[in-house]
Amino acid sequence: MLQPTLYRPFLSGRYEVAAGLFRLGVQPIPWRDDGAVEAHTFAFDETYPAFVASKAAAHRRGLHEYAGEANLTPDLRLATLSFLATTIAAESGGVVTWDGERLHNALLGWTVHLDLRRGTVEHLSRVPAPLSELLADIHPVNALDVLGLNIQEDLALIARGPTGDWLAATHVLNPQHWDPRDKLGRDFLGVHAPVAGSGPMNATAPRLVDAVISRGPFVRFAWGIAMSDRLDHHPAAPPDADRHAQTRFDPTGAFLRVERQTLTGFPHAQGALFTIRPYTYPLLEAVASPVHATALTQALRSMTPEQVAYKGLNGLIPDLLPWLDAHAGTLF
After folding, report:
1. What's the whole-number average pLDDT of the chain?
2. In terms of Cα–Cα distance, which of 221, 222, 275, 279 is closest to 255?
3. Which residues, in sequence order, are CB contacts of 63 under 8 Å at separation 6+?
4. CA distances from 294 to 28, 32, 75, 323 (A)
5. Which of 98, 136, 231, 273 could pair with 174 in a Cys bridge, judged by C-beta atoms 3.0 to 4.6 Å apart?
6. How remote is the C-alpha of 160 from its chain's centroid?
7. How far apart are CA 138 and CA 224, in angstroms?
8. pLDDT, mean of residues 301-330
9. Coil, helix or strand for 321?
């Protein structure tokens, strides 16, 4: 498998809460060193085992804390599941195959018969495989659960009806300090209202939801600084060093966490699929040049106090910014 792509969304030198949509397959990604145009929804790379292990731990701890449905329509369920099964197989590099009824994962040792219209698991068989032990005690509850466990991305479904939009389903097993249960059934404004600085984006909610459903697919990026590379930071997950009151900035234990998010619309089903793929890079790797360190410093200094607090940086900023300034100087 390939190494994870390194994204640096902070290179703009500003921290912004905005749609920031790039057209998949059309617009280059400036946060990549090579500025390549990306067309994929799902990325299978050498961190795949870590994602499977993390998702299995969340599933084991309590799937209901991470996944659920809220008035998911049959049309949107079928459209989403069909897209997922077909695209996962196409983009997995041969790891996953799909024949319209059976999904097979050579690394997990799973062969699963799915009914996409009903969203059910009809039969699951297991054979020994390189990663089969990671999911040996996991019993998927439905087709979305099966498909979510086969990929590194988390999943959310956005629906739209005569009275507005709402979050119709989640399978988010690696959230970054938020609870998927708080978002289910809420509209765009309700989902994003807690995000510091989201006011201007929220003001365009109707147009943005329409674009996502009717004009995609798109890709966007979000980022922050973390003091742990653990993937799952659900509020109910066991605590670790990230956002712990006693944690202070240490460059050797700091990480840049980037979320690559894609949005694929299904106009005929009045909804869209939203994927979230977290990437964690050692901060020393993320700021490998003076340009990187300077841009990150500028982006962090552009944050409002509310955004600093929302991103959990209050305890880190006093040491993080001077370190970045010094680091930029030593890299010349």
Report:
1. 93
2. 279
3. 141, 145
4. 23, 17, 48, 11
5. 231
6. 22
7. 31
8. 89
9. helix
Give the pLDDT confidence of 141-198 residue by residue, as tens digits.
Answer: 999 999 999 999 999 999 999 989 999 999 999 999 999 999 999 988 888 878 877 7
Continuous H helices in 125-239: 143-149, 188-192, 199-203, 205-214
Separation CA 167–CA 159 (nearest Å): 6
In a domain, 220, yes or no: yes
Q: Which of the four pLDDT bands, split at 50, 70 and 90, describes residue 332?
A: very low
DSSP letters of 286-306?
HT-SHHHHHHHHHHHHTS-HH
With b meaning 16 or more CB within 10 Å and e meaning fewer, what string describes 303-317?
beeebbebbbbebbb
In 114-138, which positions are buried (b, 16+ CB within 10 angstroms) versus exposed (e)?
Answer: bebeebebeeeeeeeeebeebbeeb
Domain count, the chain: 1
CB atoms within 10 A of CB 2: 10
Encode 201-228: b = buried (16+ Cβ within 10 Å), e = exposed: bbeebeebbebbbeebbbbbbbbbbbbb
Residue 233 pLDDT grade (very low, low, confident, very high; cuts 50, 70, 90): very high
Is 4 domain-assigned?
Answer: no
CB atoms under 10 Å from CB of 26, counted, come to 11
Does residue 22 lie in a domain region?
yes
Cα separation of 142 and 112, whole Å? 11
Q: What percent of the chain has pLDDT over 70?
A: 99
User: 93 and 84 in contact (C-beta within 8 Å)?
Assistant: no
pLDDT of residue 275: 98
Query: What dihedral angle (degrees, nearest 10) is formed by the CA atoms of 244, 248, 254, 255?
Result: 40
Domain that holds residue 104: 9-330
